[in-house]
Amino acid sequence: xxxxxxxxxxxxxxxxxxxxxxxxxxxxxxxxxxxxxxxxxxxxxxxxxxxxxxxxxxxxxxxxxxxxxxxxxxxxxxxxxxxxxxxxxxxxxxxxxxxxxxxxxxxxxxxxxxxxxxxxxxxxxxxxxxxxxxxxxxxxxxxxxxxxxxxxxxxxxxxxxxxxxxxxxxxxxxxxxxxxxxxxxxxxxxxxxxxxxxxxxxxxxxxxxxxxxxxxxxxxxxxxxxxxxxxxxxxxxxxxxxxxxxxxxxxxxxxxxxxxxxxxxxxxxxxxxxxxxxxxxxxxxxxxxxxxxxxxxxxxxxxxxxxxxxxxxxxxxxxxxxxxxxxxxxxxxxxxxxxxxxxxxxxxxxxxxxxxxxxxxxxxxxxxxxxxxxxxxxxxxxxxxxxxxxxxxxxxxxxxxxxxxxxxxxxxxxxxxxxxxxxxxxxxxxxxxxxxxxxxxxxxxxxxxxxxxxxxxxxxxxxxxxxxxxxxxxxxxxxxxxxxxxxxxxxxxxxxxxxxxxxxxxxxxxxxxxxxxxxxxxxxxx
Length: 526
Fold this sequence. Notes:
The protein is an all-alpha fold.
C-alpha cells in the first residue's frame, strides 16, 4: 500500500474517524475504555501487511525477539511506583535482588548482543545474502546458491529502530515496554515504518504515540499544509524529474557532456524532493493524530561542508550511526589512525544499509573519505592542544564552500542512482566527453516529450518552496509589519494548501494518463 494510493486514503480516513470517536467515548466515560493507540496499531498492521501478509511474520519475529530480550535484560531491575510519587515514569530503577552488579552487566550485555545478532542476521540474510553470494560467484568463479527471498519493505529502518531500543534498554536509558501491543505499535507505526524517521522508543512515547488526544487539540491546517508540501515535492517535482532521469540512464550510450551534468542535477533534486516529501507527508499525517515526529532534513543543499551536509541530511540516520556505532568505536577520543578507521567503518555501514549493491558501498566510503579529509586538520589540532582562532565568515569563501560541497554531493548521487559500478563509470566518462556530439536528445525523447511542459510547473514549484521556506524563516519579522497577523497567516496558509493539493492532483492524473505516474518512493527499497 502506497501513501499516494486510494487504499491508503481510505485506511487513513477510517483510522482518523475511529481514533477520535474512541477518544470521545473515553472522555464520556471519564476513563480509558479502549486506548486510542489501539486504532493506530490496527491501521499499522493493515497498512504493512496489505502488500504481502508475509511481511507481518518477519516484523512479528523481529519485534518478539527484541521485546522479550529487553524484558529479560531488565528483569527485576525496575520496580513500579505509585503515580503520586512519580508523575512521569511508571517504573524506576531498583537494584534490589541484583546480587552481583558486575555479573549482572555481563548477563545484560550477552542478551543484548544475542538479540542484535538475531535481528542483524535476519536483515543480512534477506537483504544481503544474494548480493554477497553473487559477488563471490563472480570473483572466484564458484556457484554458491542464491535464493528468492521475500524482503519486507522498510526492513532496514525497523531493524535499526529495534537495535537502538535493545541497546538503550541494556544501558538502562529506556525502560523496557511490558505491553507487547504498545511495543508492536512502536515498531510498526504506519506513517514512518517504510522510510523513518528512525525514532527511539522514548522519543515516540514523548511525542504522544500512546497518549490520549482530543479532536480539538490539533492544528489541522498546519498538518494539511505539511502534507501538501510533501505532495508537491513528490508528485510535481520528483515524479516529473524521474521521467527524464530514467530516460537519460536508459540512453547513456548515446548521451554525453553537459546533458548528463544536467541529469545528475535533476536526480539530486529528485532524490531530495522524493525523500523529504515523504517525511513531510509522514509528519503531516502524524499531526492529524496529535503525534509530533522528528524532522529529518534541514535544507541540506546549502551546507558549506560535508560534515554540515550530514547534519542536515537524513538527520535521524546520522544520529543513529553516531550514537550506536561511532561513539562505541571510540569516536574521536582515540588516536588519529583509529579515528580514520572509525569514520570509514561508520560510512561503510551507512553504504551497506542503503542497499545490497557495490554502488552503495563505494558511495558510503566516498563520503567517509570526504569526512576524513574535511575533519583531519581539526583532529590534528585537537590532539596538539591547538585552539584555532575564531574568524569571521568570509561571504565569498562561504558561497564557494557551499558550491563545492554541492558539487561533491551531486556527483556522489550518480553512484546512488546507478544500477552498478560499470554504469556509474560510464556516466562519469560520458559526462566528461563534452566534445562528443550527442545522438540522443533528452527533451526530444518521444516517450516523455509530452511531459516537457510539466518542467515549468516543477521549476515554479521549486522556486515557490524556496520562497515559502524563506518566509517561514523570517516569519516573525515579516508579520510584525502586517496588521491582523494571525488572519493573514491563516488565509495564506489555507490558500497555499489548496493550491498545492490541486496542482498535485492535476499532475498526478496527467502523469498517469501518459504512463509516467510512478508514485513509489525511492527509499522504499531500503
